[in-house]
Amino acid sequence: MKQAKLSILCASLIAATSMSAQADTDFKFGGYVKADVMFSDYSNGAPDSGSLSRQFYVPGTIYGDPSNGKQVVDFQARESRFNFKSSTDIDGHKLVGFIELDFMTHTDGNERVSNSYSPRIRQAFVSFDNWAAGQMWTTFQNPGALPENLDFVGAAEGTPFVRQTMVRYTNGGFQFSAENPETTLNAYRDPTGSRITSGSGMMPDFVARYNMKTENGMAFTFAGLARQLNIEKDDLDSSTFGYGVSFTGVIPVGQDDIKMSATYGDGLGRYMALNYANAGVLDMNGDIEAITSYGGYISYRHWWNDKWRTSITGSGFKADNNIDLIGNNVNKDSYSGYINLLYSPVKPLTVGVEYMYAKNTKENGFDGELNRVIFSMKYVL
User: Fold this and answer.
1) Contact 334, 362 (CB under 8 A)
2) Closest CA to 9 of 169, 119, 143, 168
3) Domain 32-380 falls in which CATH fold?
4) How far apart are the C-alpha atoms of 237 and 342, rounded to whole Å?
5) Torsion over CA: 151, 157, 160, 163 (sign)
6) For residue range 156-198, what is the model confidence (pLDDT) as tens digits?
């Protein structure tokens, strides 16, 4: 059934770009094949095989199981991805369709025999001139400023990181979008720190962004997010306003470069640190109080020569949780650092090794640490 749906989606994408005999259409296949070997040391015991933290670093998932051993090794090719793009010129207008798949985040396979994992949609959108609709990177995020790390995300707690369905308008350096809303909350004085997810809101999340480049090659983005936090569930009926501001920069330093990001907001929730902290907490009356959070990263990439390079990255995030959450099992802050050595004997091929360290802390003082060494080989199609 999943394969049939995928075939229909791809066929629809191709059909949408076959507008007329006079249309000039280009087709492009892309992606990469990537194999990882990860040696991990979890301070509180490793998560079970196949868990999200065993696939890549996700803040909040490294606390592990004390009944398991602390040191594990994982071999995987799940990050490998495939994409298909069609671009059609029709009477001076540009029509683009794009779909991209990989195999991450699923737990529907296992490592016993075939290591079979379902494909998932990363992106699927269509654009016509300045307008685009479909699943894309949130306009609040700048993927072009992410560090070059072997970890799947890299600097995970320091960056906005969301893909979702939206309608986006682009004009020059300006971008405006209405995006899918989703609210994540903590219950009132819940010591377990369990998450309430509410998709009942009727107001989209709105994002505005400005992209600029200078004559000497520097690139900067400034983004603002406005959203409604909403819950209508059982006897709860409450909403409040959330916002966020974000800045990214890519600064060339000779052949090297510096990449950075800084983000702050009330009610950011899932937009930051892979939803390490929630957007708000319910008070004794069932009303939502937004949670303030902030984070960022900085990364320096040095090219030793045209084939060897190293990136050094530091990343951090902190949530100023409401007083009702102090002492509970809710996430408080997260930090991670990375250093790698990458080698590209030919342009499409990269092999490398990376060491990363991460520490996550909860409001009750409980913490978890992860030390990981990653060996990777990546071939860009």
Assistant:
1) no
2) 119
3) Porin (2.40.160)
4) 52
5) positive
6) 999 999 999 999 999 999 999 999 999 999 999 888 888 999 8
